[in-house]
């Protein structure tokens, strides 16, 4: 009898599913935040990619302060530093015996180092600081060395590269107490360079021998992969798996990266692949005078697109020519740390009085596999069900109503990644309501919503490759910029819906007011030169008329297939700088309003990029227009800068940082960005153009960033134009578009002719202003360019 009971209670855990992470990969997923430090010759030349011909004496930081670098990052919550040892220019930041292009050849730097009682070896100084502050350390060694005369000679160069790896990884004075957790090898070769075959597999073997357990970033299906862009954004669907053969064959054949594949991973991959989300705090990788740090709004988007999608966030923080991190960089890092700490300090799911239930518990073993395990803080326990059960529900009863706006969920990835489809619901007013839905979970998935109030949360798993294992659930109230607050630019005056003057039967909700009664009105008076209406778009919403001073100025349609809160519904043209009345009237279905936002800066205006999206053929230039709306009184300037996405500056486009000075009364300026014609086969790539730092009391508006798509071929660009135009031509009989299937050369020629006229007509008819969310009229298709 006793033996039988003991046998029944011994429930085996699920078997691993697919590839599983190494301990080094697991550690990195759990660390979440890491820092790149791009420092070297480029810091002093102002370039991102050097040519290897630089005079070593150009490198001369006057007050190298690696303690400041490491302590700042440690205090800001970063768990590892990846230090540039040698970039593509070949200049080594350590005293290498294999090249003269290195720090020991900079006589000024060596003299300064001696005066400061330092070694004159930057990697050694960083290592001392990492050891002092117990910071994990990684090492970047570019496989591309534009200075080396051996580059292009297969055997000689690979031996040279391995000698330099050994110099660093095999010397105990480097690393955190001699230990490196990561080695970074960029895949760049550069257009027109001598063909160089890299011995990736031998390099991997050498690294494992010198630094056992260290993870390796490379384009060759190693333990860490590029996420497919330099914007720090993992895919909405993101698997920590790749197919080794596919990835290596792609690199061998094309020499580049399959960006979309890397961004999303492979659900059927045969190796575990951690997707590192790299992005720079500034517009370039190396420090340049005048560069400013990304805003907290930018960093918020990146955080939830990296850590919030189960991948590490690798943020580049470049020191300046003095050898220190400038203060506004330090301030932004501290602000990010404070926001993370205060947002995730209290897990409502781990509070006292919370109870858990599940649709099924594996073998009825509540202790080892019960739902309460998701809040016990252990990496070793989880909730799961019986083998073969691919759907299920986990319910968390908070006991009393709580306010929250973020929910984090983690799979037990030590046994593989599994979940393919799921959602979160919260209980409110007697029924379950959707909080958000997603596909993959992985190491961590954080879903956000505007603040809701509820006593119960339910996680529904609709699909999984094998029985799901849920290790962690966290329910939080976000702090600061992590909150799903306004999309509204800083500096606009706010009139919340609670202060509107209304007629009819408006209802109050947490986001503002709504009505379903045609003819109901909401109005307010204001002083200023431009007004914006912010509210909710929804599949049950319809058209409203907008009046300024009793004159109808628009009829936006607030319909959207998906419900979204705090969206820009309408904006006025530039108004006279005086008192006005704005009024909205429901025309059909329903509307929900959050607030009116007013530009009132004495006519200084608001800067925006004219369109959200631009396109260009590979090797051509693209011209963007920056406009100054809502007034142009006095001179004002705004900084225009580019930042990488899947396109990399210096490789796919020419980086640009420039100040645009608008004279009194000037409302428009154009900026041209060059793309690079290279031999890579990459498919279509994207980068970003941004405007920041307005002066003279002007503001930056809703359209502060545009995406530029570089099309691999003119036909790719043409098909994009076709997709764009199909929304515009539904009710325009003057434009006729034929979608042709190219089956022969003659048909392709016809398509090319059509493309010429369609693109010309598109450019002629293209609207001048596009906004970020649903600014449409009743007569116009609901398409956002």
UniProtKB/TrEMBL annotation:
**tRNA processing as a keyword?**
no
Can you tell me which family this protein belongs to?
Belongs to the glycosyl hydrolase 29 family.
Q: Name one GO molecular function term.
A: alpha-L-fucosidase activity
Keyword Transmembrane carried by entry:
yes
Which terms does the UniProt entry file under GO BP? cell communication; fucose metabolic process; glycoside catabolic process
Q: Name one GO cellular component term.
A: membrane
Q: Where does the sequence pass through the membrane?
A: 737-759
Q: Which PROSITE patterns match?
A: FA58C_3
Organism of derivation: Tritrichomonas foetus
- Highest taxon of the lineage: Eukaryota
Q: What class of enzyme is it?
A: hydrolase
Identification of the protein by name:
alpha-L-fucosidase
Domain named F5/8 type C is located at 339-432
Q: Which SUPFAM superfamilies match?
A: (Trans)glycosidases, CalX-like, Galactose-binding domain-like
Q: SMART domains of this UniProt entry? A: Alpha_L_fucos, Calx_beta
What are the alphabetically sorted keywords of the record?
Calcium, Glycosidase, Hydrolase, Membrane, Repeat, Signal, Transmembrane, Transmembrane helix
Database matches in InterPro entries: CalX-like_sf, Calx_beta, FA58C, Galactose-bd-like_sf, GH, Glyco_hydro_29, Glyco_hydro_29_N
State its Enzyme Commission number(s): 3.2.1.51
